[in-house]
Amino acid sequence: MKEIIAVIRMKKMNETKQALVDAGISSFTALGRVLGRGKGQVHFDILQGAEEGYPEAIAQLGNAPRMVAKRLVAIVVPDEMKQTAIDTIIKINQTGNPGDGKIFVTDITDSIRVRTGETGDVALV
Predict the structure, then answer these.
(1) d(CA 90, CA 101)
(2) pTM to 2 decimal places
């Protein structure tokens, strides 16, 4: 099993959810608003705000680097669904502009459905 954690643009959440469901991945968790930044300097003139359809919520924290609001999506899938999940997230979120997001993949050793006690891949579906 793999856990896929994706940090995506706020405005791409609904489209990403639908694409995952259409790809056969209907179970996931999303955190509302997370703040972060990538390795590069955040250039808000590149983001183009609402003109490009990506109105980013920006927080200025004292003299600290600017942070950009994103959504965090966590998905646990059987190994054979890993690439489908990654490809789906990239297809929806890739614009070619800074701020498209990041995807992290980790190994999961087990999963347990609390209601039934089922374990492993069976607990994911």
Answers:
(1) 9
(2) 0.79
Neighbouring residues of 25: CB distance < 8 A, sequence distance ≥ 6:
75, 77, 81, 84, 85, 88
Q: What are phi and psi of 37, to 5 degrees?
A: -155, 155
* Residue 94, helix vs strand vs coil: coil
Instruction: Tell me which residue of 37, 38, 19 sits closest to 28, measured CA to CA.
Output: 19
pLDDT digits (tens, 9 = 90+) for 46-99: 444 434 444 444 444 344 566 788 999 999 999 999 999 999 999 999 998 888
**Hey, where are the domains in the chain?**
2-124
d(CA 2, CA 28) in angstroms, rounded, equals: 12
Does the domain at 2-124 match CATH 3.30.70.120? Answer given as yes
d(CA 38, CA 31): 18
